[in-house]
Design brief:
Largest sheet: none
Structural class: mainly alpha
Distance between the termini: 48 Å
Number of strands: 0
Length: about 260
């Protein structure tokens, strides 16, 4: 008959599985954290720091899970030990306690740094948006001036008007509609010189309204992203610091 494993041996096997699984998770997380430091050639930029800190916090629960599995395996081993002898803590448990303390301090420091960088990034994003809007308005004015000069030139050039009215080549239906619209506008502007100025002012205001509406929407989105990031990440970082700190303090109490 096959011998049935005792409860003690089953517990030892479970402890081993938990320790190996926890160690693999912790090592994989450590490698992941290490690679986060080298993806960008400009590590001094606010965007890089903000992105790196965010990823550190978002992935911070992974090593916490690995450490918890290691400590759970060790606790089960201690509970199943019927000898009653006090054993020294294995090296891997000491490493877990020390690493937890260091990570707890790190996550405690990440919270204020991330909050500060979120504000800087938001300010930079709004400044860049204002610059883009200013450039868009300048391009709009330049385009309108070019169109006004072109129309003014046509109004004073009867030869070109004759060519538009009687095109020599083949003209598509859409092109003919555009020519007819242009000729109608030129006739209107000739009859009423103030109509051109009014038309230019109306078109400019319409385009400016679209630009400013898009600017307002983008500013609102930047502010929403800022508040989400500045609240979620620091709070998550503080919670992780609390979890790692609890493990570290508990470990130091056991070693004392």
């Amino acid at each position: 008959m096959t011998a049935v494993p005792s409860g003690s041996s089953r517990t030892i096997s479970l402890c081993f599985i938990l320790t190996v699984a926890g160690t693999c998770i912790a090592l994989a997380a450590g490698l992941d954290f290490f690679t986060l430091l080298f993806p960008d050639p400009t590590p001094s930029s606010v965007e890089w720091r903000l992105n790196t800190l965010t990823q550190f916090v978002d992935r911070g629960v992974v090593p916490l899970l690995g450490f918890s599995l290691i400590l759970l395996g060790r606790w089960l081993r201690m509970v199943s030990d019927s000898s009653g002898r006090k054993r020294s803590l294995p090296a891997i448990v000491l490493v877990v306690f020390i690493a937890s303390g260091l990570l707890g301090i790190a996550y405690l420091g990440i919270a204020p740094f991330h909050f500060r960088d979120s504000g800087i990034a938001s300010t930079n994003a709004i400044a860049q948006l204002n610059l883009q809007v200013e450039q868009a308005e300048q391009q709009l004015d330049s385009r309108i001036n070019q169109e006004v000069n072109a129309i003014s030139g046509l109004m004073g050039d009867e030869k070109q008007l004759q060519q538009l009215q009687n095109p020599s080549g083949t003209v598509t239906k859409e092109q003919q509609q555009q020519i007819d619209t242009l000729l109608t506008q030129i006739k209107e502007f000739k009859a009423n010189p103030n109509a051109l100025e009014a038309k230019v002012k109306e078109s400019r205001e319409q385009f400016l309204a679209q630009i400013r509406l898009q600017k307002a929407e983008l500013e609102a989105q930047i502010q929403v992203d800022y508040w989400r990031s500045s609240i979620r990440i620091p709070i998550s970082s503080l919670l992780l610091a609390l979890g790692y700190g609890f493990i570290a303090i508990s470990g130091f109490q056991l070693m004392s």
